Amino acid sequence: MRKINLSVAFLFFMGLSYLQAQERIPQVEALLEKMTLEEKIGQLNLLTPGGGVATGSVVSEDVEAKIKAGQVGGVFGVSSPERVRQAQEIAVKNSRLGIPLLIGSDVIHGYKTTFPTPLGLSSSWDMELIKETAKVAAKEATADGINWNFSPMVDISRDPRWGRVAEGAGEDAYLGSQIAIAMVEGYQQDDLTQPQTMMATVKHLALYGAPEGGRDYNRVDMSRTKMFNEYLPPYKAAVDAGVGSVMTSFNDIDGVPASGNKWLLTDLLRERWGFDGFVVSDYTSVNEMIAHGMGDLQDVSAMALKAGLDMDMVGEGFLTTLKKSVDEGRVSEEEITTAARRILEAKHKLGLLDDPYRYSDASRPEKDILTAGNRQLARLAATQSFVLLKDHNQVLPVSKKAKIALIGPLADDQTNMLGTWAPTGDFKLSVPVLEGFKNVAPKAKITYAKGANITNDTAYAKKVNVFGPKVEISNRSPEKLLQEALKVAKAADVIVAVVGEASEMSGEAASRTNIQIPESQKRLIRELVATGKPVALVLMSGRPLDISEEMEMPLSILQVWHPGVEAGNAIADVVFGDVNPSGKLTMSWPRNVGQIPVYYGERITGRPAASEEFEKFKSNYLDVVNSPLLPFGYGLSYTSFEYGKSKASSENLRANEEIIISTTVTNTGKKVGKEVVQLYIHDKVRSLTPPKKQLIAFKKIELKPGESMTVEFPVTVEDLKFYNGSLEYVYEPGEFDFFVAGSSNSDFDGTFTVVE
Ligand code: BGC
C-alpha cells in the first residue's frame, strides 16, 4: 500500500500563512513604538475586579489604579454599557497611552437569554440553530459592553464523570469540529468591528476533557496519534474558522502544563496551524505551574511567555516578574513585544483602537437583550436539544386534557433550569416546568408534589450549593414527601416526574464517581412505577447518567439536560406533543461507571468480542457487555423512521473525484418528525489501528408521515484522511465499509475502494 504524503505541501502552505500573519498593522506598530517595557507587560495582564463568578481562589485587587498605571490589558466580570464605559474611560483618559481594554466574559450558552447547556445544544445536531444561538448571545453580550467571549469550549470528552462534559459537544471529533465552527462563526460573524459581534476564544487548549479518572484539573496523558485524530480537531477547526483567541487548559500534556507548553502553543498552534491571534491562560493557570512542579512564579511566568502564552488571567505573574526576567536576560524584550502586539492587534480587530466606546451604547440593552424573539429562540433550541430515550407504551406525548401528577424535586424549580456556567443569566427569569405545563396545556388538571429532595445528603448538598441554593432539602421528612407524591400520583391518569441532577452537580469542579440519579429520587421513581400508572420521566442532567435501572422499568424517559431560560415551556412543548423530539446523543451513556471510557469510535483490538455473549480470551467483561447503555447518535421520535440499504454511486473512489453515498429514509409513523441521518465509515486496513466506526457526515431532515427522502452524502478522499504515525494528514488507498443510519449502533452494509 502506498501512502500519499501531503505533509510537504501542507507545511509549505502553513508556513506561508504564518508569514502572512506577520503583516504589521501601522496603528499597532505606532503604539508599540511609544510603549515602555512596563506598558507592554501591562497589556499582558487580565484582571477581574470581582462581582462576577470567580472560578479560582483569587480575585484581582486595585484594578482601577492598575488600569491608570497602564498595567492592565483587559478585564472580565464587568458588564453594562455604563460600567464598561467607565472602565474604558479610566484606561483611555487616565493612562499614559490611553489604550482601551478588552472586556471579557464567559458567555457559554447564551448571555441573558440562556440557551440549553452546550452538551444539550450539541444534541440538536443542528448547526444553523447552534450558530444562531451564538449570534444572539453575541448581540446580547455586546449590548452589555462585552467584546471578548471565553467560548466555545470544544474539549472532547469520553468521560461522563468529568462535570465539564456539560460545557462541550461530547465525544466525537468530527461533530465537535462542526459545532466549533458554527459557534465561532456565530460569535464573530465576518466582521469583528461590528458592534453586534464579539471575539471568540476556543478553549481549553488542549485535551482538558481527558483527565485521569474524570477528576477535574487532573493530569492527562495521551499518545500523539490519539491527540491528533481524536482530540485536537475541534480546536483546529476553530482556528481555521478564524477564532480570535485561544485559552490554555489547566492540565499537563506530555508532562508539561499547557500554559507553559512550547510544543503546544508555538510549534503546533502557531507554526503548524497558522494561528495569528493571541493566547490567554486559564484562571491563574500560570501560577498553578508552581504546584505542577515547574519552579517559582518568576520561572513559570518566563516559561509561559517563552512557550507562546500572551495574556495572564488573574494570576499577575507576568505583571510582577517579567521585567525582572528581562533584566536578568531570561526573557527578551522582543518576546514581550510580540505578545503585546498580539493583544493590541486583537483590540484593532475589534475596532477598539478607533472607538473605545464601541460597545458602550446605553440604548442597546433594552432593544437587544431578552427580546421576545431571543426567548423564542431559546424555547426552540431547548426543544431541539431534548432526546427521547425510551417511550414505554407511548406514554409520551401526554394529552393536554389529561389529569397529570407532576412530581419531582425539579418539577417546580427555578434555580436549576439555566444549567451550569450561566453566570450572566438570571435564574429568576426562567420558566419552571409546572408553569410551562399550565401555559401549554391550560385545560389539563395538574397537581404537583415535590416527592423527594434532589439528594438527602446535606454534606453533598453543601458542596453543590457554592453559587447559591440549588439543592434545597425540605423540612418535611423524605417519607412525608414520598407519601404526598403517591397520593397525588394515585389520583392522576399519568405521572410526569421531573428528576435528575441539580445544575451544579455538573460543570467545573463537579466530578462524580457515581453518576446515577441520586438515591432519594431513585426511590421516588420506583414507588411511582409501583402505582401501576403510566410514568414519564423528564430527566435533567449536565452529563450522561447511568440509568441502567430506569431503562429496565416500564416508563418513558425524555432527556432534557438543563434547558435554559425557557425550560418549562420547551419541556411542555415536547411532553404535550406540539414539538416532536429529534435530539440525538452526542456522548455514549454507560451501563455502569466501570465501563468508562465507553465511546463509539474505539479502535479495534486484536481480540475483539464478536457479540454480546461473553467469550474467554476476548476483550470483554465478566459482568457487563461491551456496548454502552445508549449509543452515540441515538434518540427516538414520536414517529418512526425506516432506512433503506445504503449505496455508493461507484465502487471506486479516486483522488479529486467524488462518490455519493445515499440511502432512502421513510417516515413510517403517524407524525411529522425530524431525523438526524448519519454516515459512518470504517477503514478496513490502514497503517494505524482504525476506529471501529467513524462519523464523517450527517444531515438533519424533516419528513411527513409516509414521506420518503433519498439522503445523499458526497464523499471525497478528504473525508477519509487521518494523522498517520508521522502525524502527516493522509488517506490510504484500500477498502472502506460504510452505513447510513439513525445512530452509531448499526451494521455496515456497503463498501467502496479508494484506488490510486
Ligand atoms: C475556567 C474557564 C473560564 C475562566 C474564567 C476558569 O476556571 O476553566 O473556562 O473561562 O475560569 O471565568
TrEMBL record:
Residues 675-744 form the Fibronectin type III-like domain. Coiled coil: none annotated. Keywords: Glycosidase, Hydrolase, Periplasm, Signal. Gene3D superfamilies: Glycoside hydrolase family 3 C-terminal domain (3.40.50.1700), Glycoside hydrolase, family 3, N-terminal domain (3.20.20.300), Immunoglobulins (2.60.40.10). It catalyses: Hydrolysis of terminal, non-reducing beta-D-glucosyl residues with release of beta-D-glucose. GO terms for cellular component: periplasmic space. GO terms for molecular function: beta-glucosidase activity. One of its GO terms (biological process) is glucan catabolic process. InterPro entries: Cellulose_Degrad_GH3, Fn3-like, GH, Glyco_hydro_3_AS, Glyco_hydro_3_C, Glyco_hydro_3_C_sf, Glyco_hydro_3_N, Glyco_hydro_3_N_sf. It is an enzyme of class 3 (hydrolase). Its EC number is 3.2.1.21. Residues 1-21 form the signal peptide. This is Periplasmic beta-glucosidase.
